[in-house]
Fold:
Amino acid sequence: MGAVGAAAVAVPLIHQMNPDASTIAAGAPVEVDITPVAEGQVIKVFWRGKPIFINHRTKKEIEEAKNVNLASLPDPQPDSARVKAGKEQWQVLIGICTHLGCIPLAHQGDFDGYFCPCHGSQYDTSGRIRRGPAPLNLAIPPYEFLSDSKIRIG
Amino acid sequence: MSGHSTYQPQNGFMKWLERRLPIAGLVYSSFVAYPTPRNLNYWWTFGGILTFMLAAQIVTGIVLVMHYTPHADLAFNSVEHIMRDVNYGWLIRYLHSNGASMFFVAVYIHMFRGLYYGSYKEPREVLWILGVILYLLMMATGFLGYTLPWGQMSFWGATVITNFFSAIPLVGESVVTWLWGGYSVGNPTLQRFFSLHYLLPFVIAGVVVLHVWALHVVGQNNPTGVEPKTEKDTVAFTPYATVKDGFMVACFCIVFAWFVFYLPNYMGHADNYIPANPAVTPQHIVPEWYYLPFYAILRAIPNKLLGVIALFGSIGILAFLPWLDTSRVRSANYRPLYRQFFWIFVVVCLGLGWLGSKPAEGGYVYAARLLTLYYFAHFFIVLPLLGFIEKTKPLPNSISESILDKDKH
Structure:
């Protein structure tokens, strides 16, 4: 009985540290107008305090992302699984290095993608990890196209 | 040990108090009559220096809290307010921030002294492990405190360190969200870090009491590593150790004051005078100097989970030192081989520290891998083997004999 009581008291004491109602409410989806994003440009928007990269990829970048031997990747995933069908010029990523949470720099590194200045992880034009200590590809947030020029993230 | 005199209350009030709470007797037997080995050198004064630094950090910290605001929108400006507006605020803040560095200087000397003279060996294992716990608490407190000014290094340091926990399989992400109180480092993170930064020094003070208690049960080690046997081997704590400790605290304060008044930002980073910006990571993100060797170990390993394990393992392994070192001779003065390996180990630790401050690329990474390998080999291979193959020098029969012999030459 004592142990049950202690556990019952421990739950609120521990759970109070999880995101509170206002933090969760502030994490609601955001809508972004992507018309001004020129080809070859990466913009950064915030959702849930996380930077979201919206990359309007060039033809060359798309080709590079497609022509990769999947077996050579640390976290194999085809480019088609990382973009919406028919919208492969638009690539939406959570801009947080999967190593220890720094923000990678766009259009840098040996793979034309992203380079993390903290510990040297390099990602390709599809946001897949290619070299360095990061274990996983850059994550993709939940998002959908509301129209050709507008997306909703979250 | 030596037949020290027991406390005799002198006046009526002390006699009255002693029968109800024998605190004066406890202080007398612990810090006045307490027998200390007569051959202790100046390396043994760092325990006293550390106690002084803990008290200094608590005093300056409590004063800073009177003027600081733990909120993501206000913290940075409140620190500038302390620096510019509060009377002597600049002094108190520089004492606190440089005090943290000086605290670590003292603890590293204290730890290496323990390593050199084998102070962790039977019967001082618990004393040593309490010391490792104190060191971990100090590291946690230092990290939490560094986030409070909410500059760029504060923010990104907090991000990188909390992300260590995302390496935990399956539950890592939930643990990190719980630590943050949000989906990224933000105001809830700052507020809880502030709360814990205020708490931990008092936890440290509590463990220090246990550390000193354990010390007074087993007695101090000494440069010969031979236990005191007769009264001739010891002197009373007061005045001998008190004066010596007091003298070294004063010398240490000269160095401390030199940093505070002439190089107050030498051990900080310019980036931390830029307000936290969640959109931009600083180009070269490095922790405070006292974490650099462990940072180098983290970055040396090209796998996230293994890197984090190696980082925590490199500290945790210290707790097992009393059993990894198989030699029965304590002091390196009588261990010719260990003495050499000890200095190699010191150089390796300094080397790792230097590499931790360099960018993680090219030759630096390979050097860090080599030194990381040696760091662990020191504990897992060198120390266990030395106990079997080393031919130690003959130990003196007693502490007083070792001193009298020296006088003859």
